[in-house]
Structures are given as C-alpha cells and as structure tokens.
C-alpha cells in the first residue's frame, strides 16, 4: 500500500426492528452498522452484510448521527475525523461479540432489497475498515464464495442461527457489465476457477485480480442514475450522491 491514507466510503446500514437481544437497550434510537468499502458503485447490488462471529464490536455515540456499530479500532479512528463530539474520544454504549449480531436486519442505501441481514464471514480482518463488510455477490468473489457457503450448507447456517429467509431469497443482481466477464463477474470467475469455499485463498486472490482492475477501468453501470457510464468516470459522483442522501460518510485509515 502507498504512503498516504486510504479513503473509504463508509456505508451506513440502519438497524431495523426487531433488534438482536444484545442491542435491545438501544431500541428507539437511531443505530447504524457502518461498513468501509472501496466500491460505492456496487451498493445497488448489496444482498447482505458480513460480521465476523468472533470479533468484538462496539456501539458508540456519534456527534450528530446516532449510534454506530463497528470495531473499537475504527471508532477510535473516526473520533479523530470529526465523527464524535470530542476529538479523539468516543463514548462506548455497549460491546457485543459478532456472533450475537448475526441475523440483524438493516436497511442499506441503493440496494434493490429493502431488508438485508448480518451473515457470518470468517475471513474478515479485525484491523481493516470497520470489521463490518458490505456484501455484493454479483461483483465480489469473496462475497459470493462466503454466500454460497451459507446457501449450500444448512448446517453452517444453523451453527450461526441464520434462518433460510436471511439467505435463500437473495440473488445476485446484475449491476455492472465487464467485458469478458459479463454482468455477474464474481460468479463468472468463481465458476471458471472452480472455487470451493471462502477458504480457497489462492484462487480467490486470483479471482480478485481478474475482475477488479478490469472492472474499474472497463466496467459499465447497468442501473441507477449513472446507467451506461463507465465506473471510473462516475465513482466519485456516486460517492457524493450517497453522502448527500445521508447513506454514507467518508472515512480514512
Ligand atoms: B469491498 P482493501 Cl463488490 N476484512 O466492498 C476483509 N475485507 C474487508 C474488510 C475487512 N475488515 N473491510 C473491508 N473489506 C472489503 C465491496 C467490494 C469490495 C466489491 C469488490 C471488491 C471489494 C463489497 N464487498 O474489495 O484491502 C470490502 O469489500 C476488494 C479488495 O482496503 C472493501 O471493498 O483494498 C475492501 O475489502 C477493502 O479492501
């Protein structure tokens, strides 16, 4: 990585009723899970979001945007970026392990699905972003692999208390056309490389290398107000749109 800080789009995903047990004390308040992404233009196709079952998350008070849920590390970073009342300080409301947040329902910006769920991903890194990850199975091989693991394995769903309706009704949405890879590029490379699961590290790395650069330079949006435009030309506009519509913030680390 380069010397400068990385800019992320912080996607706000509003917690819906019923709140998970560990978050019951927050009922009546505005609560958002926040996820750092490099691909705001993919939010049209979000099918779920990811939480690591074993990572500890916190809920903290922001200055003027209700409660955010993310890792403590991300909250600390945000506290130096104007997210909290006092610079460098964040008020922890509660702590919860990812396991207890699974199955939470949220409303996320742009996606065609009005309600999506927190599902388990075991490859989330604690020291990157917020520890919460948006999931776009049409365009991210990591997301598609983790999603298929849940779709194909009822025992895996059961282990984490994930019900069928949190997974089975959701399908990949064609949102970007990438030359050679079509309009569901993650599925294309997953099949082509015969990826077996989210733990297929080497193949997933290869899959990512195949789709990402090409997607960025030659990908064309198939939906929304920038339909027909190249991603590299509208990525910034889309980020601005999300921020202006109160669906996202800018976050650095
Ligand atoms: B991206 P970079 Cl469609 N652990 O968003 C693992 N992965 C994480 C993470 C964490 N703690 N925090 C963020 N990420 C993911 C969308 C997307 C992303 C698509 C395609 C590629 C892609 C939907 N998931 O990322 O190391 C997030 O997933 C390709 C790398 O900072 C975030 O953007 O480059 C990306 O990794 C940030 O990774």
Automatic annotation (TrEMBL):
Molecular function per GO: ligase activity
Membrane-crossing residue ranges in chain numbering: none
Hydrolase listed as a keyword: no
Alphabetical keyword list: Aminoacyl-tRNA synthetase, ATP-binding, Ligase, Nucleotide-binding, Protein biosynthesis
Family from the record: Belongs to the class-I aminoacyl-tRNA synthetase family.
Protein name: leucine--tRNA ligase
């Amino acid at each position: 990585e380069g010397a400068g800080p990385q800019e992320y789009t912080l996607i706000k995903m509003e917690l819906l009723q019923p709140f998970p047990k560990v978050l019951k004390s927050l009922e009546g308040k505005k609560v958002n899970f926040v996820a750092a992404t490099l691909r705001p233009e993919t939010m049209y196709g979000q099918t779920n979001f990811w939480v690591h079952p074993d990572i500890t998350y916190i809920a903290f008070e922001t200055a003027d945007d209700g409660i955010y849920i993310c890792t403590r590390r991300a909250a600390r970073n945000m506290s130096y970026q104007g997210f909290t009342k006092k610079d460098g300080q964040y008020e922890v409301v509660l702590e919860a392990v990812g396991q207890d947040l699974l199955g939470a329902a949220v409303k996320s910006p742009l996606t065609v699905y009005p309600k999506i769920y927190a599902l388990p991903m075991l490859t989330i890194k604690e020291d990157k972003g917020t520890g919460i990850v948006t999931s776009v199975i049409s365009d991210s091989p990591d997301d598609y692999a983790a999603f298929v693991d849940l779709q194909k394995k009822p025992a895996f769903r059961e282990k984490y208390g994930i019900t069928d309706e949190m997974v089975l009704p959701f399908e990949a949405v064609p949102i970007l056309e990438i030359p050679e890879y079509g309009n569901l590029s993650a599925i294309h490379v997953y099949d082509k490389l015969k990826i077996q699961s989210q733990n297929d590290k080497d193949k997933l790395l290869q899959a990512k290398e195949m789709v990402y650069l090409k997607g960025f330079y030659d990908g064309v949006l198939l939906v929304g107000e920038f339909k027909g435009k190249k991603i590299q030309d509208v990525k910034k506009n889309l980020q601005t749109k999300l921020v202006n519509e109160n669906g996202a913030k800018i976050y650095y680390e």
